Automatic annotation (TrEMBL):
<dbReference type="InterPro" id="IPR036884">
    <property type="entry name" value="2Fe-2S-bd_dom_sf"/>
</dbReference>
<dbReference type="GO" id="GO:0016903">
    <property type="term" value="F:oxidoreductase activity, acting on the aldehyde or oxo group of donors"/>
</dbReference>
<dbReference type="InterPro" id="IPR012675">
    <property type="entry name" value="Beta-grasp_dom_sf"/>
</dbReference>
<dbReference type="GO" id="GO:0042597">
    <property type="term" value="C:periplasmic space"/>
</dbReference>
<dbReference type="GO" id="GO:0051537">
    <property type="term" value="F:2 iron, 2 sulfur cluster binding"/>
</dbReference>
<keyword id="KW-0560">Oxidoreductase</keyword>
<dbReference type="GO" id="GO:0046872">
    <property type="term" value="F:metal ion binding"/>
</dbReference>
<protein>
    <recommendedName>
        <fullName>2Fe-2S ferredoxin-type domain-containing protein</fullName>
    </recommendedName>
</protein>
<dbReference type="InterPro" id="IPR036010">
    <property type="entry name" value="2Fe-2S_ferredoxin-like_sf"/>
</dbReference>
<keyword id="KW-0411">Iron-sulfur</keyword>
<dbReference type="InterPro" id="IPR002888">
    <property type="entry name" value="2Fe-2S-bd"/>
</dbReference>
<dbReference type="InterPro" id="IPR006311">
    <property type="entry name" value="TAT_signal"/>
</dbReference>
<dbReference type="InterPro" id="IPR006058">
    <property type="entry name" value="2Fe2S_fd_BS"/>
</dbReference>
<keyword id="KW-0479">Metal-binding</keyword>
<keyword id="KW-0001">2Fe-2S</keyword>
<dbReference type="Pfam" id="PF01799">
    <property type="entry name" value="Fer2_2"/>
</dbReference>
<dbReference type="InterPro" id="IPR052914">
    <property type="entry name" value="Aldehyde_Oxdr_Iron-Sulfur"/>
</dbReference>
Length: 203
């Protein structure tokens, strides 16, 4: 049964029914974010500061990005440093681990523009085929990989571990590396590689 028109508000305001109110709320919720001046259509991007500096593998870059761009996507899609892998994209697998100012970070969980002036190191900046980092060499020696997809993140996390408080036992290492998953199950070899580098004092 149709409800009668309530008529004008006693204070002179326009009356609004529940359906109209909810429609207005829904429209506001899906309204587009503010876009860069002059941008239009589907290529428009949310405003972000231009020329934000970041140092990646010793080289300074200027970021001009959609504010929603993660550090992982910036490295892979803008700098084409694809050694850093996108696994779960939720910070649960560790495949995207990089170093930020010397500390390990899940790059899928942090926004690129939040790292103004920071120094980022990816697997490409850790070593080269002709000059492997000791941890890379140890992973090769101990077969610390199978499919290799998680390996860059494992090595970056393991390298950071060298400067972190971690006990001496294999169990301690497993705990310190628990944020990095290997679906192939190469954990025993990964731990052996890390322990070799720790014994030899590699950096």
């Amino acid at each position: 049964m149709q409800q009668p028109d309530p008529g004008p508000d006693p204070d002179g305001a326009q009356a609004i029914d529940r359906r109209s109110f909810l429609g207005a709320v829904a429209a506001a919720a899906v309204a587009p974010l503010p876009t860069a001046a002059g941008a239009g259509g589907t290529d428009a991007k949310p405003l972000g500061p231009a020329g934000v500096p970041i140092v990646v593998n010793g080289v300074e870059h200027k970021m001009d990005l959609d504010v929603r761009t993660t550090l992982l996507d910036y490295l892979r899609e803008h700098l084409h440093l694809t050694g850093t892998k996108k696994g779960c994209d939720h910070g649960q697998c560790g495949a995207c681990t990089v170093h930020v100012n010397g500390r390990r970070v899940n790059s899928c969980l942090t926004l690129a523009l939040a790292h103004e002036g920071d120094e980022v190191t990816t697997i490409e900046g850790l070593g080269a085929p002709e000059r492997l980092h000791p941890m890379q060499a140890a992973f090769v020696a101990h077969d610390g990989y199978q499919c290799g997809y998680c390996t860059p993140g494992q090595i970056m996390a393991a390298t950071a571990l060298l400067d972190e408080p971690c006990g001496p036992t294999d169990a301690d290492v497993r705990e310190c590396m628990s944020g990095n998953l290997c679906r192939c199950g190469a954990y025993a070899n990964i731990v052996a590689a890390i322990q070799q580098v720790r014994r030899e004092g590699g950096r």
